[in-house]
Amino acid sequence: VRYPRGNCSGKIDISNTDYPSLEIGKGELLRQGRRIALLGIGLMTNHFLEAADLLEKELGHPVTVFDARFVKPLDAEAILGLAR
């Protein structure tokens, strides 16, 4: 898990109700793979998508990329599911 410091891209005003799909404390599975899971928060998630492409090309199998979105509250249920 790479946790960014400072500002990141894609900030969302969570008080704005125009984002009904953004549930506080829930991450988003961006790519489903096997064996390897990259978990990011903020801008690093974009880098992990690029890294997943490189790893897939090198290793020959898909890599999971999960945007955790929140550190507190952490989406522990989803992260534990990925670990399983």
SSE succession: EEHEH
SS content category: alpha+beta
Helix content: 25-40%
Assembly state: single chain
First-last Cα distance: 16 Å
For the CA atoms, what is the radius of gyration?
A: 13 Å
Please, how many helices?
2
* Regions with little confidence, pLDDT below 50 for 5+ residues: none
**How much β-strand is present in the residues?**
5-15%
**Major sheet: arrangement of strands:** 1-3-2
β-strand number: 3
Largest sheet: 3 strands, mixed
The geometry reads as: globular
Molecular structure report:
It is a single chain. With 84 residues, the chain is of the alpha+beta class. It is built from 2 helices and 3 strands; from the N terminus they run E-E-H-E-H. It has helices at residues 44-59, 76-83, and strands at 28-31, 37-40, 64-67. Strands 1-3-2 form a 3-stranded mixed sheet, with helices on both faces. Helix 1 links the parallel strand 2 and strand 3. The longest helix is centred in the middle third of the chain and has 16 residues, at 44-59. The radius of gyration is 13 Å and the shape is globular. The two termini are 16 Å apart.
